[in-house]
Write a structure and sequence with these properties.
There is one protein chain. By secondary structure, the chain is an alpha/beta fold. Helices cover 28% and strands 16% of the residues. The chain contains 5 helices and 6 strands, in the order αββββαααβαβ. The longest helix is centred in the C-terminal third of the chain and has 25 residues. The protein is globular.
């Protein structure tokens, strides 16, 4: 190529944030708790299931499989501002369940782990307590996250071995505790030291 050719490489924010966590083994996963919930897992084989909204990106000789849900922080911000979420979170006991079975969405339609453009939000009954309502939303999003990883495994991914978290939701310790209770694998800090050279994986 001519010497004056400019070569630009890039990736999506979801893939970039995954790589930034240091996840590098099949079964390592990253949940992005931003406006929406995105889950990605390293896999030794590509996974594609458009009927579930599942896709894969190739990274060298390994694959990054996952999908994006319509649930996430957008649901929280539709009901509470940041200061209110912080104040209410202080009232929540993350070791117990509300018993409410929410699938939090702000409008009809879901992409992953259920691909249904007509799917209705499930956020009733609404408790009188705002703290209980927020807790039920946290639980609901955590339930979608757990279903997403179950979907990946059922469609041929490696067994889930760890979860790292990125995005604004990672700052909320109560939400993290609720999520951790629903996931049967270790949670890692959002960013950790890179593995020593010579370890199998991406680094």
């Amino acid at each position: 190529m001519p010497e004056d050719v400019v070569i630009v490489a890039g990736t999506t924010d979801g893939s970039a944030s995954f790589l930034a966590t240091g996840a590098d083994q099949p079964g390592d996963a990253v949940s992005a708790l931003g406006t929406t919930l995105t889950v990605k897992m390293l896999s030794d084989r590509p996974l594609f299931a458009p009927e579930y909204g599942l896709y894969s990106h190739r990274i060298g000789d390994i694959w990054l499989a996952g999908g994006a849900s319509n649930t996430g922080g957008v649901v929280l911000s539709a009901h509470f501002d940041t200061d209110r979420i912080s104040a209410l979170s202080a009232e929540i006991d993350p070791t117990t369940d509300t018993g409410l079975d929410y699938y939090p969405l702000v409008r009809d339609g879901e992409r992953f782990p259920i691909n249904d453009p007509a799917m209705k939000p499930r956020m009733t009954p609404r408790p009188d307590s705002d703290a209980v309502f927020l807790k039920a939303i946290f639980e609901g999003i955590a339930g979608v996250e757990a279903l997403a990883y179950d979907r990946l495994v059922s469609l041929g991914s490696p067994a889930l071995r760890s979860i790292r978290t990125v995005g604004g939701g990672a700052k909320n310790a109560v939400w993290t505790a609720i999520r951790n209770r629903k996931m049967p694998v270790p949670f890692w800090p959002w960013l950790r030291k890179r593995r020593r050279p010579g370890r199998r994986g991406l680094h």
